[in-house]
Structure prediction request, 436 residues.
Amino acid sequence: MTSPALTLSQLNSRIGAAVMQPSLQNVWVVAELSDLRSNNGHAYMELIEKDAATGSVKARLRAIIWANNFYQLSAEFTAATGSRIATGMSVMVCGSVTYHAAYGLSFLINAINPSYTMGEVERRRREILKRLTDDGVIDLNRSLDWSPTPLRIAIISAAGAAGYGDFMHQLYGNSRHLRFTTRLFPAIMQGDRTSSSVIAALEEIAADSQAWDCVVIIRGGGATSDLNSFDDYRLALNIAMFPLPVIIGIGHERDITALDYVANMRVKTPTAAAEWLISRCSEALDRLQRTATDILHAATDKMAAMNTQLAYMESTLSMAPTAALQRATSHLSQCSASLSLVAQRRIAPEIARLDSKLTLLQNSLSTIISRQSTLLDSKESLLKALSPAATLARGYSITTVNGHALSSTDSLPAGTTVTTILARGTFTSTVISTDN
Prediction:
């Protein structure tokens, strides 16, 4: 026979009795908070456990903190961690399993261990930084060089946020009257969509990176738990590999996220980010002003020296031709005197040498002429002694035919007319006969 049927309330009573066993009372449970909400001072939430590999929820339990306990637990948790109890937190809570016939199974929380939550946040952050280190990208953005004058600024912030307003007021109200160019790339800066929203803004900036000198990611202060969304590996990776220097100005000075370890510059507030940019550009302006002052002083000193030199030249210019002429005249006189002395020293010996050679030449010429005259006289006497006239004077004669002297009767036919020359006179004969 079948057992008699139970009413639903009877079944619930049995379940309630089953869960009231001591092993389910005042137990510590590790879980993640989900769907946290408050109503009439009570806190309602779900405790969930996710699969480490897939991220899907593999366990879920409704939980409650009654109002008479929630205020004290929340205050102690905030004082210890700097954050309010919020959805997405990993917590260690102490409580008891209860069962209500109308509302079902619940976990009634009576204590929270804030040290566990703090450790989980730090563990998560360390895990992100280790992955970035292992990937070899953690120092990429921090090693980028800054422009001497980062005047073109891409801003990632929530539109209308107080932190963005503080940043803009500080930047454009600078006392040096520096002119910045800025553009807001709106992003969600709180909640589960923070990472994807900021990454989308970074991608938009990267598409036109030549137009900007740097990126500023700013968010005003708030609960530390509001910053948990910035401890995200994908977001930290995008900032670490971003091609422009990134400034992080999120929260208060005490607030730290993974982004502070990968960005090129970390400042404590949005206002401090503006102050840092103003300071850097002011330093460049100061260097420019010092350079301009140095150039002015150098030019002034140079002009003063040139004016002094010009005044000296003007004072000496009127006397310069006369002085130059006097120096030239003096030099010419010295050259003339030197030339005269040199001429006397060089020409006098040469003249004496010419005089001696002239005397020697005259003597030699007289001797030569005398010798040649004697020789000519001797040759003249010899010539006279050997001349035809001398021969004729001694009784000889010269017979010619047609002007040619005859020395033989060969080829001299009879009847030839010949002319005979004597010392005194000539006569003509006709050849009758010849005898060889």
Notes: Residues 105 and 153 are 54 Å apart (CA to CA). The longest helix spans residues 320-386.
